[in-house]
Amino acid sequence: MGSTTPISTTDPSNPQIQHWENGLALYSNFITPTEEAEIISSILSDDRWSGIGKRQTLHYGAHFDYTTFGASEMWTPVPRYLEDLVDRLPWRKEGKEERPDQFTVQYYPPGTGIPPHVDTHSVFGEYLYSLSIGSSVPMVFKKCGENEARKMRKPKRSLLGDSRDEVNRTRVTIKAEDDGEEKWEVWLRERSLLLMRGEARFGFTHMIRGRKFDFDERKGERVRRVGRWSITMRRVRRGGEVGCTCGFPGVCDARIREEVEREEVEREEVEREEVEREEVEREEVEREEREREKEEREKENGREVRIEAEHTPGILTNQ
């Protein structure tokens, strides 16, 4: 992916764990093949799938809202297999109050991608997990620019869509993405757990290209994609926690929203001043019009007096 690809280091206590300086971590073989098969069986036994086209979604705990990119008020009980996963996540070892309570399970048919995005800062905690199940896929990370961040906050953008539309949308987006400087690919192997935190969580977009084949450098060959599941796990910020004070204000939805609100206040102030100015100008025009009409009436009255005097014998003899 280029000279800017960050270098990962292997955890000295566990060779299955890779760390990047920007806060990204990848836990290979986080679950066993037996656990993977059991999770797939549990996923397929749930009949509450929703979605558009072939790409299907399940939500547990708080439901993800694809309009606001936050959490909705809907709630579905968390199944046992997810509770077991949560107890094994890294947040426990690091003493962080980042226990996930929002879970999104998605099925990706072959060729399906996801557009570049940064998960909402203000609504979700710092630790973001993604467990890959069924097959491998490369995920692209790219440093997020301020203009890109603002475009991503538009409601029309959605992470859920038809697989054919997804391929087209990611193809269109790739040209803009390829203009970036700092980006790289991370292969999400089946049964691996991805952890995003710090800069990787708040300052980088992540995406999956919509295509049917990938070149696997580890295997040294082009491989065809097959169906894949992912489980995204987040912690929802609530009450006074909602908001963000991260070190990436240019791409932070909380700061962008504050800026947009300030711009809206300024725009309304400019519009108010413009209305007031137009009102003053209108009143001035009306005042000038009244004075002009008054002068014309006075002139007309003066003409009438002179005409009357001219037709009245003797009225002007002393003038």
UniProtKB/TrEMBL annotation:
Gene3D superfamilies linked: Alpha-ketoglutarate-dependent dioxygenase AlkB-like
Q: Which is a Pfam family this sequence falls into?
A: 2OG-FeII_Oxy_2
What name does the UniProt record give this protein? Answer: Fe2OG dioxygenase domain-containing protein
Tell me the classification of the organism that encodes this protein: Eukaryota, Fungi, Dikarya, Ascomycota, Pezizomycotina
Q: Where is this region: Disordered?
A: 264-319
Q: Where is the Fe2OG dioxygenase domain?
A: 99-237
BP term (GO), one:
demethylation
Renumbered to this chain, the Basic and acidic residues biased-composition regions fall at 284-311
Organism superkingdom? Eukaryota
Which InterPro entries does the record match to this protein?
AlkB-like (IPR027450), AlkB-like_sf (IPR037151), ALKBH4 (IPR032857), Oxoglu/Fe-dep_dioxygenase_dom (IPR005123)
Compositional bias annotation for Acidic residues: 264-283
What species is given as this protein's source? Sclerotinia sclerotiorum (strain ATCC 18683 / 1980 / Ss-1)
